[in-house]
């Protein structure tokens, strides 16, 4: 049995989370998650524009989908270091890495504290993997040190919750079932998917870490949730939208079916063809180590 990294250090709660239910869900439904997040990968990889021979660091690489896409772009002669805290998701990445056209080094560690070789990467890339640090300042100072002078950082992250109905519509449909103390996902919680939504906050973070030429590009995208009939797609919505999973898991037996029904009713109008299609919006953020 593979041993997980220890749930210790500043991001211990995230280490537990991504090695528990979240890691299992993302690994088991990997193909459908990739379908959902394909628009993010296309935008972020186009902005990073990795070139043959370059050395790329993929932070929070998960199951390794973007790692493999980038591998195609840095061949021949390049290499990738793919790092994540989730041992489960990296097991999938390790399998796929065997088919890559360039060497891929996989590291199971916390990106905030990992001791990277200084000035060793041309590009630091991340698809939705940099919003979860307890101390983003320390993490980005670490990435700055790991980049070569002139190296670039490119990541994609979610914009405000109200621009992301694919996540918020199902959450709002079951708020009245939420337990006391439940907080909507928001920009202020450190490990929230929306923690990098405020543009000024991220600009300051990057500038404080020593980056220049900070650029935010806003993109509207369509998120395709699931595959098949409405019930199959609603099942996937419960997997990807963690707050509704949380509300369902804490609902009483008598409320549980009502929670599922409310989410299904909210999403039904958006089930077209064989998936649920809803709007989302992301920032593609880029910057440079001078
Ligand atoms: C939203 S998922 C995105 C995964 C992948 N990039 C993708 O788009 O399919 C966030 C990823 O960040 C990883 N992650 C969270 N905190 C991390 C940390 N401190 N260091 C490294 N990886 C982290 C999680 O394990 C997870 O794989």
Description of the molecule:
The protein has a domain at 12-160 and 190-224 and 281-288: Vaccinia Virus protein VP39 (Rossmann fold, 3-Layer(aba) Sandwich). The longest helix has 19 residues, at 30-48. The chain has helices at residues 12-19, 21-28, 30-48, 65-74, 87-97, 136-146, 165-173, 199-208, 230-240, 242-250, 253-267, and strands spanning 55-59, 79-84, 104-108, 121-127, 147-158, 212-225, 271-272, 275-288. The N and C termini lie far apart (44 Å). The chain has 11 helices and 8 strands. Helices cover 42% and strands 22% of the residues. The model has no long low-confidence stretch (mean pLDDT 96). Helix 6 links the parallel strand 4 (121-127) and strand 5. Helix 2 runs parallel beside helix 5 (87-97), helix 7 packs across helix 11 (253-267) and helix 9 (230-240) crosses helix 10 (242-250). Strands 1, 2, 3, 4, 5, 6, 7 and 8 form an 8-stranded mixed beta sheet that branches. With 290 residues, it is of the alpha/beta class. The radius of gyration is 19 Å and the shape is globular. Bound molecules: S-adenosylmethionine. Residues 11, 14, 18, 37, 60-62, 65-66, 83-86, 89, 110-112, 127-129, 132-133 line the site of S-adenosylmethionine. Residues 11, 14, 18, 37, 60-62, 65-66, 83-86, 89, 110-112, 127-129, 132-133 line the site of S-adenosylmethionine (SAM).
Layout of helices and strands, plus pairs?
Blueprint: H1 12-19, H2 21-28, H3 30-48, E1 55-59, H4 65-74, E2 79-84, H5 87-97, E3 104-108, E4 121-127, H6 136-146, E5 147-158, H7 165-173, H8 199-208, E6 212-225, H9 230-240, H10 242-250, H11 253-267, E7 271-272, E8 275-288
Parallel strand pairs: 1-2, 1-4, 2-3, 4-5
Antiparallel strand pairs: 5-8, 6-8, 7-8
Helix pairs in contact: 2-5, 7-11, 9-10, 10-11
